[in-house]
Design goal:
The complex is a heterodimer of chains A (about 280) and B (about 250). Chain A has twelve helices and no strands. Helices cover about 75% and strands about 0% of the residues of chain A. Chain B has a single domain (about 40-70, about 85-245), classed as P-loop containing nucleotide triphosphate hydrolases (Rossmann fold, 3-Layer(aba) Sandwich), CATH 3.40.50.300. The chains are: A mainly alpha (about 280), B alpha/beta (about 250). The interface of A and B includes residues 167, 168, 175, 260 and 270 of A.
């Protein structure tokens, strides 16, 4: 099972693949979906982004230095938390820091176990392993962070009366937010748990597919995928809980009051800017 | 001096509150409370009256620090509440909101919520009895109660913390007339029996008349008239007060 000979895709093959784009664009034109422009932009971006990443990864693989790997992980984390913040409904103030810490912490814990203990990659910074695995962890952590904070925000607005009743009885912010917190964590965990339920039944996960095409034994590929599924669940959970507790710190004041931020929504930033000018 | 502070449950002095509010999509600042000073002696029932939007609820919410004043001070038995532990303050100053808030779980769990936070036992049956609800309801979910009963339960839940002051924010506004009158009678009964200091926000003149020993009339965040309820209802000193008694000041929307 030493074969790593698989069919390569030439430049001409890539051009032929544009037939798929033509089909999609024709479909959009025929049904007047008005998506032609978006499909074109999407195609260009797919080419540009993936070719750039491919190039960067190739450089990374030949350089094989831990500094470059750490830099790549840092960039991935920053982009992920930026994306998670972008998906928030109300004010975004203070959320970037919280999500960066959450994603970085979850990434560090899960990578340590997968790279250091389960795969025992030596040296640990071999890009072939750490980069794709970190990509999966950070991508899922990003979704977890985005979901949990968004849901916590709307739950606190929805449950305002209940939360304030508990605060008025002497509860801490954390105690009063208990139900909202649990509901948000469940929301963040659900997609991961659902995918654990159906994995392999409907479609094969991308990484497993890739390994099989590259000539890996399916039973080996499956073992990788099992580790990946479990590590994603843990990474999502850890990110969600750190983000949620961090977000409690901005949705409540230190005096166990609901923050005006929940009332003002997007205008919160404007309010903060004005109060500073006084 | 100590005897005097013992007799004054709450002292508000030169309170101001400026709040950001959204009018449509524009952020503006609203002066909700303007230079308000008021004392509430121990054991009195103060009705805080005034048209909607006059700052009554905000004033109430500053007394248990659900909101902070922009300037001025609030003393509870002579101590500045700014320097108190917020959670200890809220145990001493209970609050009941307009719409009854149900916590998850049974009626017993609702009532014992406050004491349980501190790991203290709570005789939920006693407090249920105090507000005139059957003890047999203890193990029922809170959602099984009618809205009037839910408000009684909310009062029982606030009382379970043995507060020194009880804040009531329009406790009858979500109820029908009969249920509202029953709640008002209950508040009368409780304030006598427990020697509680009560501050009740209301815009119903009959309710203020039935329960209050003192009256404070707020218009646009300013204290317009304040004093003994008996005197106020027989001879209000301000035009706003007379208007209130004729029922003209209300539903003005503001």
């Amino acid at each position: 099972m030493e074969t790593s000979s698989y069919i390569h895709i030439s430049n001409l093959d890539l051009v032929i693949a544009l037939v798929f784009v033509a089909i999609t664009i024709l479909l959009s034109y025929w049904q007047r979906l008005g998506l032609e422009r978006d499909i074109a932009i999407g195609t260009v971006r797919t080419f540009l982004q993936l070719l750039t990443v491919g190039f960067v990864l190739q450089q990374l693989f030949t350089a094989t230095h831990w500094v470059w790997v750490i830099l790549a992980l840092a960039i991935m984390t920053t982009v992920a938390s930026h994306n998670a913040v972008k998906r928030q409904a109300g004010s975004k103030q203070g959320l970037f820091m919280i999500m960066t810490v959450a994603i970085a912490a979850a990434g560090a814990i899960t990578l340590l176990l997968v790279i250091g203990v389960i795969l025992r990659v030596r040296p640990w910074y071999q890009p072939q392993y750490i980069i794709p695995i970190a990509g999966m962890i950070i991508g899922n952590a990003m979704n977890g962070a985005a979901l949990v904070v968004n849901r916590l925000h709307s739950e606190l607005i929805l449950r305002r009366n209940e939360v304030e009743a508990m605060l008025a009885l002497g509860a801490t912010a954390k105690q009063a937010a208990g139900e909202a917190l649990r509901e948000s964590l469940r929301t963040a965990m659900m997609p991961t748990i659902n995918s654990m339920m159906t994995v392999g039944l409907v479609q094969l996960p991308g990484m497993m597919t890739g390994q099989i095409i590259s000539g890996a034994n399916p039973l080996d590929a499956v073992r990788y995928q099992i580790v990946v599924m479990l590590m994603i669940a843990a990474a999502t959970g850890v990110t969600a809980i750190i983000s949620a507790f961090g977000a409690l710190g901005v949705f409540f004041t230190p005096n166990h009051q609901l923050s005006l931020r929940l009332e003002l929504g997007k205008h919160w930033d404007e309010y903060i800017a004005k109060s500073k000018n006084l | 001096m100590d005897e005097v502070t013992d007799l004054l449950a709450i002292e508000l002095s030169h309170l101001n509150k400026v709040k950001p509010v959204l009018l449509g999509d524009t952020l503006t600042k609203l002066e909700v409370i303007h230079d308000l000073s008021l004392v509430i002696p121990k054991g009195e029932v103060l009705a805080l009256i005034g048209p909607s939007g006059s700052g009554k609820s905000t004033l109430l919410r500053m007394i248990n620090r659900m909101e902070e004043p922009t300037s001025g001070s609030i003393l509870l038995y002579g101590s500045d509440i700014q320097h108190m532990n917020v959670r200890k303050l809220r145990r001493r100053v209970g609050m009941v909101s307009q719409t009854p808030a149900l916590l998850p779980g049974t009626i017993e769990e609702n009532i014992s919520y406050g004491p349980k936070l501190r790991g203290e036992p709570c005789d939920a049956a006693h407090f249920l009895d105090l507000v005139g609800l059957e003890k047999s309801l203890l193990q029922r979910p809170a959602s099984a109660l009618s809205i009037g009963q839910q408000q009684r339960m909310s009062i029982a839940r606030a009382l379970a913390n043995n507060p020194e002051v009880l804040l009531l924010d329009e406790p009858t506004s979500a109820l029908d007339q009969t249920a509202a009158r029953n709640i008002i009678n209950l508040i009368c009964h409780l304030s006598h029996r427990l020697a509680l200091t009560v501050i009740m926000v209301t815009h119903v003149m009959e309710h203020a008349k039935a329960v209050a020993t003192r009256i404070a009339l707020l218009v646009h965040g300013s204290l317009i008239e304040e004093g003994e309820a008996v005197e106020f209802f027989s001879d209000p000193t301000t035009e706003a007060g007379r208007k209130f008694l004729r029922g003209e000041l209300f539903e003005s929307g503001d």
